[in-house]
Amino acid sequence: MHIGLQHYLAVSMLLFCLGLLGVILRRNLLVIYMSLELMLNAANLALVSFSRFNNKLDGQVLVFFIITVAAAEVAVGLALIVALYRKRQSAHVEDLTSMKL
Amino acid sequence: MKNEILPWLILFLPLFSAAAITLFTLRRKTVSSLISISAVVTGFVLTCLFLSANTFHPTVTETTVNWLTIGNLSIDFGLKLDALSLMMMLIVTGVGGAIHIYSYGYMHDDRSMARFFACMSLFTFSMLGIVLANNFVMMFIFWELVGVSSYLLIGFWFEKPSAGDAAKKAFITNRLGDFGFLLGILMVWSLLGSLNFGALNSIVTANSAALGCGATLAGLLIFCGAMGKSAQFPLHVWLPDAMEGPTPVSALIHAATMVAAGVYMLCRTFFLFEHSPEALHVIAYIGGFTALLAALMAIQQNDIKRIIAYSTLSQLGYMVMAVGLSGPTTAMFHLTTHAFFKALLFLSAGSVIIGMHHEQNIWQMGNLRKKMPLTFLTFFIGALALCGVPPFSGFYSKDAILALALEEKNYLLFGVALFVAALTTFYTFRLFFVVFFGQEKSKEASHAHESPLVITLPLVALAVLSVVGGFIGVTNFYGSQFGAKHASLTVMEQFTHPFHDVFPMACGIGAVVVGLFLAFKFYKNAATDPLPAKLGALARWMANRFYFDELYEATVIRFHDLLAQSSDWFDRWIIEGACIGLIRGGTDLSGRALRLVQTGNLQTYAFLFVFGVALLLYFVLVK
Lengths: 101, 623
What we know:
Chain A is an all-alpha fold. Chain A is about 75% helix and about 0% strand. In chain A, helix 1 (about 5-25) packs antiparallel against helix 2 and helix 2 packs antiparallel against helix 3 (about 60-90). By secondary structure, chain B is mainly alpha-helical. Chain B has helices at about 1-25, 30-55, 85-105, 115-130, 135-155, 160-190, 195-205, 215-230, 240, 245-255, 260-270, 270-275, 275-300, 305-325, 330-355, 370, 375-385, 395-405, 410-435, 445, 455-470, 475-480, 490-495, 500-525, 530-535, 535-545, 550-595, 600-620, and strands at about 60-70, 75-80.
């Protein structure tokens, strides 16, 4: 069986949906965070496959940018989660509703 | 050319003085009073200079500056200089000057003396403005300014609630009359198309039917203004209460000048009334009625200033009556002499009040002629002039009014005037005997002392004027304005003038004698008032001012309160409750509903966000 672009995209979409479900359904902030990363990587996979199948390097350049930004985001986000945990002794989203009026 | 600038200078000097005091010297009593006094005294000197430069027979001149042009209505800011306004200028600056100097002594211990003099200067400016105005609009503006300065001065001791109330009462009552005045001005303008006194005069003289059937109505509306300012029935209630102000204010504003403004205005616009006998009739009878009413009220008052205030009302009634009997010369004559002797009486009363340490009840005084000889003498002269004893000034002007009433064959008003003359003598000498004769009725009276020179000097000056005011040519002056029947009279001819017409003179003197006799009989050595026992209910009605204040309280003021309450209700429930409340409540409710969307749960937001993206994608890609 020949593996084409649509297969890669299907995998990317599955990964994205898994990540999305994780973000929406999981309660632990760290897990939500990992799910977010999953979604980013799903996007990366789609970009790389487009790049490969269209013989253009634009997609790969964009992926490098995404990886860089994701690294920075992880640094900031994890720091926030740690600070929050120290303050509240909890990393569960149900406990973080102080935005509600 | 030099002369043309003089009237402007005289008019604006007091304004500059008021501005200078308010802006720079409000904390310096002596400087402020000197500025104010010098402004009005300079005005007096300049008026005299102007008169002598014009050889005492000024031709009618006007100096105008165009102030405002709207369409074909053009309003000037102009000064009209004729016999009428020049004589009034002399009174305002002369009598006003004496009162200013007196105030320096009277107000010396007051904390706010500078403010007092600023208000006095403002008043002098406004009054001169009325006197010099050459058109209705300018007169109306200064008319209102006089009202404002009167308000400020009556309420000068505003920390006393009664003074504040009296100031409000005076202002509001005046505004009632002024409303009619404004309507009258508008009516004259719409009928004749001009507001300038000179132009109006020539229009009416050229065509006596120019006003048509509006003449009576316009005349009566304009008279409304005079009714307010000159405190004629039914708007007379404010004047006695205005005595809450300092005594120099009562003398200047509520005796000599401001209340005379109404009479002055009637004489200034007399050409409008000439063609409306009905309006003149109403004016004459209102004047006569006011004179009678006020004289009756004066009989049973016990406050020295209030008695004189009612007497002012009564004398104003005389003047208005004289205008109504088509005698503006006579009215202005009485106005002039009244300015002299009433200012004198008020200032003497002020001197008594100082001597008595601010006690105003006459039944606390007594035997003051020993303690205050000079005040006693000046008060005596003022009283004689007020009653019309020959040869004091009041005799000449009152006799002229009596003669006028006979000449017009109005016997009813002649009788009223005679009766009022007797009453005047009675209440004046009641006051005189109780205050200056008999026994001291309180400790203050035994410790009373004569006032300082700065107070007694103006008294002497005014006393001299009260003696000679009747025959120094006042009538000649006014006569030249209103077309006198006689040629100019010499001093000697004026002195003997009343003797040409013996009957009114004899009646007048008879009335004085009757009044004097009764006052002597009842009040010589009286320790308490014998009249209430004799007159019973009538005396109570007199003492309570015929319950006019209570009547107005029950009708006009009650009606106003009701109106205010219902507008308050409307504002509170309809405007604020229904209109504003509905909008506010709607916003509030929708805000509350929208608030429910904010759950604070991160994952709900994420879900909604994704849902939104999905919807967007659906619309963009599939549809």
